[in-house]
C-alpha cells in the first residue's frame, strides 16, 4: 500500500452503464442529491432533481447509495437498470441526548432546547480552556474570554444575566454531576488584576470529552434546582470501547501573539528630561521604540494519549495529557498534567453495571495578569516615551553597594499608577498558583425489573490551590517593605455529591411512560487561609518565619454548604408523537437555616409534539417538524451566613456586626417560558428555533442603611430582572460528489430589562420604609455599571466634560481648556450585545478538510481607559494626530492637544464619555485545514493519522475598539466592557497531529 | 395498573433510600449557616469580651487604623489626611486625584467626606452602645471610660459636619433625626461630667483598681489618667465654644481645672494609642506618606518652622536630598503626581511604629493659657502656661534645640514659601498671607496677638492632628493657612474664608433624608463646605 497525498485509486474498467431512479420508502417520492458510488472506487455520481442517475460501472460491482438522513444501501449490479428505495434513517432523527442528571432522552421527546457539540468540534482548534471553543457554536450563550491569557476562565452567560447579587455563570456538570465553580475573586477596580487563576472547568482535558450538551434554558436544567437558572454545560466523558484496543495520541502546538492593540505614535518625544509623558518636540527621526516588541511569542504545546480497551463485559479508558504553555508576556507560564481513568463493567447477566472514574489534574500557573495598575508591566511599556531607549531599563536591577545585592533600577517613580520597571515586574513580582484536583466517582446501576432500574452515584471532588506571591526587595513601597514581601494562601474545596435515581420505562398500548424519581445530597466545604507580609530580616528570603509579624496579614474564611433534594420527573408519550414532560424538585438548603423559608420547590412542565408525524405531512420538503413549549421555576439559594448574627474578628477582637441579620430571606426565583420548533427540510436543512422569556424575582439586595442606625446595610428580597430572546441554529449539509459541505449558523438575541429594583419596602422591625431606584455596581473613576429601574443589567455610565448652558462641551474662552464634570455620570450604553452570530463551515474532500468559524457580535459599548491614559501621556496615535492638526476641535474651539488630553485622560481614569467605543466586532475565530489518512492496512501500526493547521482569532473583519471587546478582565457579572490595561487577547496559529493505533 | 403496582412495590425501597440520605436531615444546617470564623453570641460572653473587645473597637476607630481585611489606611487618608491634615497646613498632597478636582481644591469628593461619618456611626457608636447596654448598670466605670472615648471620637465628627444624629443613637430606629451642634456639645459636657464623677467615685472607693486594663491601649486601665484625660477633653470642648457661648465655656473649663485630679500636666499623661503584646498597627501616616507617597510636608509648616528655626522640624519631617525642608501648598494644579511625589519635597519623619496621639499635654497648657488670657482661673498665668506648653512639646517631640533660647526669641517670623515646581504657588515673604507673629511671650501685646501666639504654638505642638488644628484654625483664624490656588468648589467655598466644614454624607440623603434635612435646617446656611458651624462665629 502506498502512502501519498492522493489516496490510491483503483479505477475499474467501465464496461456497462447502470441507470435508475431513487425514491423514498413509503412516500415513493424521488430523491434528488443521493450519492451513488461504485464500491471501492472513486467512481460515482449523484441523482438529479427527478431522482434519476446514470453511471458507467465495471463488472460484478456493487453500488453504494448514500444520503444524509437515510440509511446507506449497497446494491449489487445485476442489470442495466437499478431502482432503489431509500429508508429514512430514524436513528438520525431519534437521536438520544443527555439531559439533566445524566438522564438520556430521545431528542424528539424534549420540550426544551438542547444543543450538542461533538468532541471533534472542541479538539479541532483546541484552547487550553475548552469552554472557549464553544463560542459561536451554541445559540443563546455569550462567552467572553478572560484577559488572563492561556488557561484563564471564561465568562459563560446563557440567556442573559438574571441575578443582581448572585452568580450568573453557567453551571458545569460532568457525567450528570454538578461541579463546584472554583471561580476566584475577580478584578473589579482599577488596581487589581495580577495573579489570577483559572476556574474549575478550565483545567479539564478536552481530549477526555465525548460530547458537550448545552442546556441554555432553565426548563432543561430544572432538575438541578438551585443554580439551574443560569443554564448548564453538561460534559460527557469518554469511556472504554467494547471491542479491541485503540490508542489515540495527539499533539497540538499553537503560537500566540497579541490580537488587538491600541495605536501608538512614534513621532513626538518626551516632554522634558526626566518626565514620563511625551508632549515634547517632534523627534528628528521617528522613534524605533515599539511597545509591541515587549510581547514575546507565546506557545502552547499540548500532548495527549489515550487508551481505550475492553470486552462486552468490561471496558477501560485511560488518558494522560500535558500542557506546557508560555504567555505573550515573559514569565507568564502554564503547565498542566491531566490523568483520567474510567472503567465500566457489567455483571449478573448485564443487570448490574458499574462505572468508576478517577481523574487527577495538576496545574501550575505563573503571573496570570488580567488588567489593572498593580504589577502590570503594560502600563510602563505602553506609556514609555518614544525616542527613549527602553534597553536601558531592560537591565531592570543593578548592584546596590550598600545592600550588597541587586535592586530595582527605575528612575521614573510610580507616576501615580504604581508603575515599576516593567521587566522587574515580570521577573521580580512573582505570582504562583499550584492546584491539585482529584475527582473520584462511582456509580452502580441495577435493572430491577423489565423497564425499571435504579442508579446510585457518588462523586468526590477535591481541589487544593496554593497561591504564593513573592515581591523582591526594592519593589514599590505600597506592596512590600524594604526587604520584600511574601504571601501564601491556601484554598481547599471539597465536594461530595451523591444521588439515587430510579428509572422506569413502560409502554402501554399507545402510551409510553418514562419516569425518574430520586434524591440527592451535595455537600461543599471550602477553606481559605492566607498569611503573609513584609519580610523581616533577610531580604528576598521568602519564608514564613522571615515575615515581620507586626505587619503580617492573616485571613481565614470558609463555608460548609449542603443541599439535600428529592426530585421526580415523568414523561408520557403518545404514539411517539406527542410528549408531556413534568418535573418537580424540592431543595433543602443550609443557607436557608434560620430564615422563614425552609425549603424550595421547583416545578417544570413541558409539551412537545412531532407535528409532521401527528398530521402526517411528512414530505420531501418537511421531513420533520417538532413544536414544543415548556415552563419552569428554578432558583438561586440566598447568601449564606446572613440570617445568623456573628461578630467579625479584627486583629483578634470581635467587633460589632455591620449588617442587620436577615431572617425573612427567600431564595431568588426564576420563572421561564420557552417555545420552539425543530424542523428538517429536504433532509438537509436543520432548523432549531427557540423563543424564551424569563423573569427573576426575589432578588437579594443589600441596600445601605443610614449609618445613624449603627449598621451599614441590611438584606432584603425584592426586584425583578426580565430576559427575553431568541436562539436559532441552522445547519445545512450537502455533498457534491466527493466534496462534503456542512454549514452551521447560530444566532442569539437577548434583551435584559430591570423591571424593578427595590420598591418602597417597609422594614418590619421598625416600620420604616426604604427604597432604591438605582444601584452603583462600581467601576473606575470614569466608568461605572449602574442598575436603574427600566434600564438593563450591563448598562455603562461614564463621567463627562463640563457642559455649558446649551449642553455643549464647555471650553474656557480664556485659555481654550476643557474641564471635567465630576458629579455627573451619563449613560453610555450597555456591555451586552444586541445579538451574536456564529457561522461555521466545513468542507471535506477526499481526506482533506477545511473548516472556519466566523463570529460576529453586534451592538453594545465598551470603554477604554487604556486609550485615555495613553492619550494623556501623549503616546497614542490619536495624540500625535491631534498635534499634527494643531489641537482638538471641541465645540468650535481648537483646544491645545496637551491640555485637552491631560484633562480627558487625566487622573487615574480620565473622562469616560470620550472613550466609549462600539463593541461590534466580526472575527475569523477559528480556521483549520487538515488532511486525514485512513490506513486500510495498518501503517506502522497506525489506523489513522490526521494533520491539521489551525488558527484562532486570525483576523478582525470589523472592530472599532482599541482592544478586543470579547475579552474581559472579570468573569463575574459586573465590571464588563472596560479596558484598564488589560492583557490583549491572543491570536493563535499552530498545528495538530492526531493519530490512532 | 401494572405500573402503579410496581411503583407501589418499590415504594419501601425509595423510602429506605430517602431515609438513608436524610437521617441527619437538616439538623446541622444552623451550624453550617453560622460563620465558623466569626464570634458567636455565646463567645462574646467569654472574658468580658462583649465589653472589652468593643472597647478595643472604639479605640481602633477614633483615628481609624487599618483593619484588614475590612479596610486599610485609605480610611485614615480620606477621613483625616485629606480632610483635616490638608486644610490645616500640616501636609500637602502630591496626588492629583480626579484630575485635580478633589478635596484639596475644594471639589469635595463624596466617598471621602462621608468616611468620617461612617466610621463614627458604624464602628464607634455601636460598640459604645453595646458597652452601655451591658455595663451601664453593672460596671459603670467601664461605661464611663467608653463614654470618654466616644466623645473623643465624636467631637471630631461634629466639628467636621456640625449637626449629627447623635442623641438618639441606639434607639433601634434605622433613620434618625439630626441634633444641633449646640445640643451635641451640651450633651458632651453632661456625659463627660457624669463619666468623670463615676470614675472619681470609683477611684476613691478602690484607689488601686484598674478598669478594662487588658483592653485599654491608652492608659492600661489607669483610672486617674482617664479622669485627667476626661477633664482635658472637657477643657478642649469648652475653649472651642468660647466665642458662641462664653459663660458655659468658662464654667466647664474652670470645673475641669478645679477637679481634684485636674488635667494632663506631665508628658506621661499623653493620650496615645499604644501598642501591646497583642495589639499592633502601622501608623497610617507612615503608609500614606512612605508607601502611598500621597502626602509631604505642608508649605505652612515650612514657612513657620523654618522661620522660627524651630528644631521640631527635624522631628516632624525628613530633609530632602539637598538637606532642605520644602513643603507643598494645598489646592494647587498638579499635572503629574511624580512632579511632587518624586520632587524635592520633605517627607514626613514618621515611623510605622509611631503612636497615634489623641491629645497631648502641651495642648492642655495652651488651652489653659488661652483661658487665662480670657481672665479665667486656669491654675496659672498665661505666660507660664504658654512657655510650659512649648517646653513639654519640645520634650514630647524629642527636639534637640535649646528651648529656653527658643522661648526668648522675639524676632523670628514665619517666612515666605517657594514652590520649586511651579512658582505660581509661591507666597512672598512680605505677603499678607504670611504672619508676622513671633515666639516670645509679650505681656504688653494685644489680646489678639497673644491669642495668635498661643494658637500658633499649639498648632506646632499638636502636629500631626490636622483635624484638631483645622478646627482651631476655623475658630481663631490662626495660624495663617495659605488659601487654595485653585478653587473648584463652584463658588460654594470662599477662597479667602477657606473651607468651614464637610457636607453631610450623600448616602444620608439616600437613606435618611428626613433626618438629614432636619440637620440641614439646623445649619446656618446650605449644606456645603462654605457654611460655618455653630461655634464658628468670628
UniProtKB/TrEMBL annotation, chain B:
Keywords: Signal. Residues 1-24 form the signal peptide. This is RagB/SusD family nutrient uptake outer membrane protein. It comes from Autumnicola musiva. It comes from the Bacteria. InterPro entries: SusD-like, TPR-like_helical_dom_sf.
Amino acid at each position: 500500500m502506498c502512502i501519498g497525498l492522493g489516496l490510491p485509486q483503483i479505477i475499474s474498467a467501465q464496461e456497462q452503464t447502470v441507470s435508475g431512479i431513487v425514491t423514498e420508502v413509503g412516500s415513493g417520492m424521488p430523491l434528488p442529491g443521493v450519492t451513488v458510488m461504485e464500491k471501492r472506487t472513486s467512481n460515482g455520481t449523484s441523482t438529479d432533481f427527478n431522482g434519476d442517475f446514470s453511471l458507467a460501472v465495471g463488472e460484478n460491482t456493487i453500488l453504494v447509495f448514500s444520503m444524509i438522513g437515510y440509511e446507506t444501501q449497497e446494491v449489487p449490479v445485476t442489470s442495466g437498470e437499478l431502482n432503489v428505495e431509500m429508508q429514512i434513517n430514524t436513528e438520525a432523527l431519534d437521536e438520544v441526548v443527555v439531559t439533566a442528571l445524566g438522564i438520556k432522552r430521545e431528542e424528539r421527546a424534549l420540550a426544551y432546547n438542547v444543543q450538542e457539540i461533538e468532541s471533534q468540534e472542541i479538539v479541532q482548534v483546541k484552547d487550553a480552556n475548552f469552554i472557549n471553543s464553544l463560542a459561536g457554536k451554541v445559540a443563546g450563550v455569550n462567552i467572553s474570554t478572560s484577559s488572563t491569557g492561556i488557561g484563564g476562565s471564561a465568562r459563560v452567560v446563557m440567556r442573559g444575566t438574571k441575578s443582581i447579587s448572585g452568580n450568573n455563570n453557567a453551571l458545569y456538570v460532568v457525567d450528570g454531576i454538578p461541579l463546584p465553580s472554583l471561580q476566584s475573586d475577580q478584578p473589579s477596580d482599577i488596581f487589581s488584576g495580577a495573579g489570577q487563576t483559572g476556574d474549575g472547568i478550565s483545567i479539564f482535558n478536552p481530549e477526555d470529552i465525548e460530547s458537550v450538551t448545552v442546556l441554555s434554558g432553565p426548563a432543561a436544567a430544572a432538575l438541578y434546582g438551585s443554580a439551574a437558572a443560569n443554564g448548564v454545560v453538561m460534559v460527557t466523558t469518554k469511556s472504554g470501547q467494547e471491542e479491541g484496543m485503540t490508542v489515540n495520541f495527539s499533539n497540538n502546538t499553537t503560537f500566540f501573539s497579541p490580537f488587538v492593540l491600541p495605536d501608538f505614535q512614534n513621532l513626538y518625544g518626551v516632554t522634558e528630561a526626566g518626565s514620563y509623558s511625551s508632549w515634547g518636540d517632534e523627534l528628528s527621526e521617528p522613534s524605533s521604540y515599539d511597545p509591541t516588541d515587549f510581547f514575546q511569542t507565546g506557545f502552547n504545546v499540548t500532548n495527549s494519549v489515550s487508551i481505550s480497551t475492553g470486552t462486552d463485559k468490561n471496558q477501560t479508558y485511560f488518558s494522560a495529557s500535558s500542557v506546557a504553555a508560555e504567555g505573550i508576556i515573559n514569565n507568564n507560564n502554564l503547565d498542566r498534567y491531566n490523568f483520567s481513568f474510567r472503567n465500566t463493567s457489567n455483571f449478573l447477566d448485564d443487570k448490574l453495571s458499574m462505572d468508576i472514574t478517577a481523574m487527577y489534574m495538576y496545574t501550575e500557573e505563573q503571573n496570570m495578569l488580567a488588567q489593572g495598575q498593580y504589577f502590570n508591566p503594560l502600563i510602563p511599556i505602553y506609556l514609555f516615551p518614544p525616542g527613549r531607549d527602553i534597553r536601558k531599563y531592560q537591565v531592570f536591577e543593578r548592584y546596590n553597594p550598600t545592600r550588597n545585592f541587586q535592586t530595582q533600577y527605575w528612575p521614573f517613580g510610580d507616576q501615580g499608577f504604581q508603575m515599576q520597571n516593567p521587566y522587574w515586574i515580570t521577573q521580580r513580582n512573582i505570582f504562583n498558583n499550584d492546584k491539585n484536583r482529584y475527582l473520584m466517582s462511582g456509580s452502580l446501576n441495577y435493572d430491577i425489573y423489565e423497564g425499571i432500574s435504579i442508579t446510585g452515584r457518588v462523586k468526590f471532588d477535591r481541589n487544593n490551590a496554593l497561591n504564593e506571591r513573592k515581591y523582591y526587595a526594592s519593589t514599590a513601597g505600597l506592596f512590600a517593605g524594604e526587604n520584600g514581601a511574601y504571601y501564601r494562601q491556601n484554598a481547599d474545596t471539597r465536594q461530595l455529591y451523591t444521588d439515587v435515581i430510579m428509572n422506569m420505562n413502560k409502554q402501554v398500548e399507545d402510551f409510553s411512560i418514562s419516569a425518574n424519581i430520586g434524591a440527592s445530597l451535595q455537600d461543599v466545604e471550602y477553606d481559605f487561609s492566607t498569611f503573609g507580609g513584609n519580610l523581616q530580616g533577610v531580604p528576598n528570603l521568602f519564608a514564613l518565619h522571615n515575615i515581620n509579624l507586626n505587619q503580617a496579614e492573616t485571613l481565614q474564611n470558609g463555608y460548609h454548604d449542603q443541599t439535600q433534594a428529592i426530585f421526580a420527573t415523568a414523561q408520557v408519550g403518545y404514539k411517539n408523537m406527542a410528549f408531556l414532560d413534568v418535573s418537580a424538585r424540592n431543595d433543602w438548603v443550609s443557607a436557608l437555616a434560620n430564615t422563614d423559608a425552609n425549603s424550595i420547590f421547583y416545578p417544570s412542565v413541558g409539551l412537545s409534539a412531532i407535528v409532521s408525524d401527528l398530521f402526517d405531512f411528512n414530505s420531501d420538503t418537511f421531513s420533520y417538524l417538532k413544536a414544543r413549549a415548556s415552563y419552569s421555576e428554578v432558583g438561586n439559594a440566598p447568601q449564606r451566613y446572613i440570617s445568623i448574627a456573628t461578630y467579625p474578628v479584627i486583629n483578634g477582637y470581635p467587633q460589632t456586626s455591620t449588617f442587620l441579620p436577615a431572617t425573612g430571606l427567600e431564595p431568588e426565583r426564576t420563572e421561564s417560558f420557552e417555545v420552539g420548533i425543530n424542523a428538517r427540510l429536504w433532509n438537509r436543512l436543520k432548523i432549531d428555533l427557540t423563543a424564551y422569556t424569563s423573569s427573576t424575582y426575589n432578588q437579594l439586595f443589600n441596600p445601605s442603611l443610614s449609618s445613624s442606625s449603627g449598621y451599614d446595610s441590611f438584606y432584603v428580597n425584592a426586584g425583578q430582572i426580565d430576559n427575553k430572546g431568541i436562539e436559532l441554529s441552522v445547519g445545512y449539509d450537502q455533498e457534491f460528489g466527493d466534496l462534503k459541505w456542512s454549514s452551521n449558523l447560530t444566532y442569539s438575541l437577548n434583551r435584559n430589562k430591570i423591571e424593578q429594583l427595590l420598591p418602597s419596602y417597609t422594614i418590619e422591625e421598625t416600620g420604616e420604609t426604604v427604597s432604591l431606584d438605582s444601584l452603583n455596581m462600581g467601576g473606575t473613576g470614569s466608568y461605572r455599571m449602574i442598575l436603574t429601574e427600566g434600564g438593563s443589567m450591563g448598562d455603562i455610565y461614564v463621567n463627562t466634560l463640563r457642559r455649558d448652558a446649551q449642553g455643549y462641551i464647555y471650553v474656557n474662552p480664556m485659555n481654550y481648556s476643557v474641564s471635567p464634570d465630576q458629579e455627573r455620570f451619563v449613560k453610555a450604553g450597555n456591555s451586552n450585545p444586541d445579538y451574536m452570530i456564529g457561522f461555521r463551515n466545513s468542507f471535506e474532500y477526499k481526506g482533506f478538510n477545511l473548516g472556519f468559524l466566523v463570529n460576529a457580535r453586534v451592538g453594545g459599548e465598551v470603554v477604554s481607559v487604556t486609550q485615555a491614559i495613553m492619550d494623556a501621556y501623549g503616546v497614542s496615535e490619536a495624540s500625535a494626530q491631534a498635534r499634527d492638526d494643531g489641537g482638538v476641535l471641541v465645540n468650535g474651539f481648537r483646544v491645545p492637544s496637551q491640555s485637552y488630553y491631560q484633562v480627558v485622560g487625566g487622573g487615574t481614569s480620565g473622562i469616560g464619555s470620550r472613550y466609549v467605543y462600539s463593541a461590534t466586532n466580526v472575527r475569523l475565530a477559528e480556521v483549520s485545514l487538515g488532511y486525514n489518512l485512513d490506513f486500510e492496512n495498518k501503517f506502522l501500526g497506525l489506523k489513522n493519522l490526521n494533520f491539521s493547521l489551525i488558527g484562532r482569532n486570525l483576523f478582525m473583519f470589523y472592530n472599532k475598539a482599541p482592544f478586543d471587546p470579547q475579552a474581559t478582565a472579570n468573569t463575574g457579572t459586573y465590571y464588563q466592557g472596560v479596558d484598564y490595561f488589560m492583557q490583549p487577547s491572543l491570536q493563535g496559529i499552530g498545528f495538530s497531529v492526531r493519530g490512532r493505533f | 395498573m401494572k405500573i402503579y403496582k410496581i411503583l407501589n412495590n418499590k415504594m419501601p425501597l425509595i423510602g429506605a433510600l430517602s431515609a438513608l440520605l436524610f437521617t441527619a436531615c437538616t439538623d446541622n444546617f444552623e451550624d453550617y449557616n453560622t460563620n465558623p470564623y466569626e464570634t458567636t453570641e455565646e463567645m462574646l460572653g467569654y472574658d468580658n469580651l462583649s465589653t472589652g473587645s468593643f472597647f478595643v473597637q472604639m479605640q481602633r476607630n477614633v483615628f481609624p487604623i487599618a483593619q484588614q481585611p475590612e479596610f486599610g489606611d485609605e480610611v485614615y487618608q480620606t477621613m483625616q489626611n485629606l480632610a483635616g491634615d490638608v486644610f490645616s497646613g500640616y501636609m500637602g498632597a502630591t496626588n492629583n486625584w480626579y484630575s485635580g478636582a478633589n478635596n484639596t481644591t475644594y471639589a469635595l469628593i463624596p466617598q471621602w467626606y462621608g468616611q468620617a461619618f461612617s466610621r463614627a456611626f458604624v464602628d464607634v457608636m455601636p460598640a459604645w452602645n453595646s458597652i452601655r447596654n451591658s455595663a451601664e448598670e453593672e460596671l459603670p466605670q467601664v461605661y464611663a471610660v467608653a463614654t470618654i472615648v466616644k466623645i473623643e471620637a465624636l467631637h471630631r465628627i461634629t466639628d467636621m459636619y456640625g449637626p449629627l444624629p447623635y442623641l438618639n443613637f441606639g434607639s433601634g430606629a434605622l433613620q434618625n433625626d439630626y441634633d444641633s451642634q449646640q445640643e451635641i456639645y451640651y450633651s458632651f459636657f453632661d456625659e463627660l461630667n457624669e463619666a468623670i464623677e463615676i470614675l472619681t467615685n470609683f477611684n476613691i472607693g478602690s484607689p488601686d483598681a484598674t478598669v478594662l486594663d487588658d483592653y485599654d491601649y491608652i492608659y492600661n486601665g489607669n483610672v486617674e489618667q482617664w479622669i485627667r484625660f476626661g477633664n482635658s477633653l472637657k477643657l478642649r470642648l469648652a475653649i472651642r465654644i468660647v466665642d458662641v457661648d462664653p459663660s458655659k465655656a468658662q464654667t466647664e473649663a474652670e470645673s475641669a481645672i478645679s477637679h481634684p485630679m485636674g488635667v494632663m500636666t506631665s508628658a506621661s499623661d499623653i493620650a496615645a494609642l499604644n501598642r501591646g503584646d497583642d495589639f499592633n498597627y502601622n501608623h497610617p501616616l507612615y503608609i500614606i506618606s512612605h508607601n502611598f507617597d500621597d502626602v509631604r510636608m505642608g508649605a505652612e509648616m515650612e514657612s513657620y518652622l523654618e522661620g522660627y528655626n524651630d528644631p521640631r522640624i527635624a522631628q516632624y519631617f525628613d530633609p530632602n536630598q539637598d538637606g532642605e525642608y520644602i513643603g507643598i501648598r494645598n489646592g494647587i494644579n498638579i499635572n503629574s503626581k511624580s512632579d511632587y511625589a518624586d520632587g524635592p519635597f520633605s517627607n514626613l519623619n514618621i515611623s510605622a511604629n509611631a503612636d497615634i496621639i489623641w491629645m497631648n499635654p502641651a495642648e492642655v497648657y495652651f488651652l489653659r493659657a488661652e483661658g487665662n488670657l480670657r481672665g479665667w482661673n486656669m491654675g496659672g498665668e498665661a505666660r507660664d502656661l504658654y512657655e510650659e506648653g512649648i517646653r513639654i512639646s519640645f520634650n514630647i517631640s524629642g527636639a534637640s534645640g535649646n528651648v529656653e533660647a527658643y522661648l526668648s526669641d522675639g524676632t523670628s517670623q514665619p517666612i515666605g514659601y517657594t514652590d520649586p515646581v511651579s512658582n505660581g504657588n509661591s507666597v512672598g515673604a512680605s505677603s499678607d498671607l504670611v504672619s508676622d507673629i513671633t515666639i516670645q511671650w509679650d505681656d504688653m501685646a494685644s489680646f489678639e496677638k497673644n491669642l495668635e501666639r498661643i494658637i500658633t504654638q499649639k498648632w506646632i505642638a499638636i502636629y500631626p492632628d490636622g483635624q484638631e488644628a483645622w478646627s482651631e484654625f476655623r475658630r481663631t483664624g490662626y495660624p495663617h493657612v495659605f488659601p487654595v490656588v485653585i478653587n473648584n468648589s463652584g463658588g460654594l467655598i470662599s477662597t479667602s474664608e477657606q473651607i468651614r466644614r464637610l457636607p453631610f454624607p450623600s448616602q444620608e440623603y439616600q437613606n435618611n433624608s428626613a433626618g438629614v434635612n432636619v440637620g440641614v435646617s439646623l445649619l446656618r446656611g446650605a449644606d456645603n463646605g462654605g457654611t460655618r458651624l455653630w461655634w464658628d462665629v468670628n
